[in-house]
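Problem: given the chain below (170 residues), write out its structure.
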Amino acid sequence: MKWMIASDVHGSALWCERMLAAAEAAGARRVLLLGDLLYHGPRNDLPEGYDPRAVAALLNRWADRILCVRGNCDAEVDQMVLDFPIRSDYAALDLGGRLLYATHGHLCGPDDLPPLRPGDVFLFGHTHVPFDETRGGVRCLNPGSVALPKGGSDRGVLFLENGVFTRQSL
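Solution.
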């Protein structure tokens, strides 16, 4: 099964639509969101196409295919408009011998990993910068931001299929 992994939509309906179109075009059956869905946050400018209500409506159409973790800009009130849970700080998926640990990245990161084993995968967002490095045998990946890329990076998502991660620009 193919997964799309994305982070940091920050209320941009324009880029949320493009993200979901990329998932559809790639044949992704599931979407793993790494937080910061609706609100842009006090440190960020408003993203292009800022419309949190429209983002909620777009994501709710995919509710049965979404697994999501909470980001530092996600609030309890956001759960009231979303039809899928966003309250967990992390999710762990068994990839058949290795663990995939997904979190937003504001509570732990590549320099402060949770207890993982060599061969496991650590997914995070938060920095808005794509990242792919192995630390202590753990592969650490960040898709970058869907709406507010930083550090001169582009907007992008990851795909996971048959144990292989690939990044795609939006």
